[in-house]
Amino acid sequence: MSRVKLLALQFLVAVTALVMWQVFSTVPIAGKVLLPPFFFSTPLDVAQQVFAWFSSGVIWKHLWITLLESLLAFTIGSVAGVLVGFWFARQPRVAAVFDPYVKMINALPRVVLAPIFTLWLGLGIWSKVALGVTLVFFVVFFNVYQGVKETSATLVDNARMLGMSERQMMRHVFWPSALSWMFSSLHTAIGFAVVGAVVGEYLGAAAGLGYLIQQAEGAFDVAGVFAGMFVLSVFVIVIDLAVSLVERRLLVWRPQPSGQPAD
């Protein structure tokens, strides 16, 4: 399937969903509106709200705060996850000792940690960044750890026979092996970084998309809630596209899977 055809089909799905939403929320069927606007709003109302935010400029401050928090959480959590994942994979004894503690911390519900981070770090951006880091770190950590562990034993043995040092092994053997796993986790980590920032803002903040959504919800402004969610979704897609560009640059050697859309 060509990329143009794929984009056309994706656009068609979005248009179909919006048309159905508009019809079901405005046109009575059997004397009853299936999606009452008070509870579900309408696409036109949501679009008007988004337009009002951008035309007035009120959205930019909130968007910048959420972007900053998300990028910091994504960067710190990803770097920490990669480094610790490599370390644990190359140090089996260390991994064995800390394994139950890693699983225990990962099992903690992150929402419970949000008030604690707010108490420790205040209502500024760093409490939201900390929450996002806890979400991003484990996603990247487990994937990098597994990626290094899954390195071909034959490849490792051949590299050692050629006399490669540990640093050369990391650069030419383990790092390429873990890259696919790492980028797979980064696509997921983007969403978690944004979730961490928005949830933190929702629970306590003076700015950000989470704050906008919380304010709209408190005023029973369903259009505002959906508008915030829409802006948030587009925001995540843009960051994900940036990661995809970096991935293509670094993994240019990787063969494309069958069925991959042509450029």
UniProtKB/TrEMBL annotation:
Signal peptide: none annotated. Pfam families: BPD_transp_1 (PF00528). One of its GO terms (biological process) is transmembrane transport. PROSITE patterns: ABC_TM1. Keywords: Cell membrane, Membrane, Transmembrane, Transmembrane helix, Transport. The keyword Repressor does not apply. InterPro entries: MetI-like (IPR000515), MetI-like_sf (IPR035906). The chain crosses the membrane at residues 63-89, 101-123, 129-145, 219-246. It is found in: Cell membrane. GO terms for cellular component: plasma membrane. It is a multi-pass membrane protein. Residues 63-247 form the ABC transmembrane type-1 domain. Belongs to the binding-protein-dependent transport system permease family. This is ABC transporter permease.
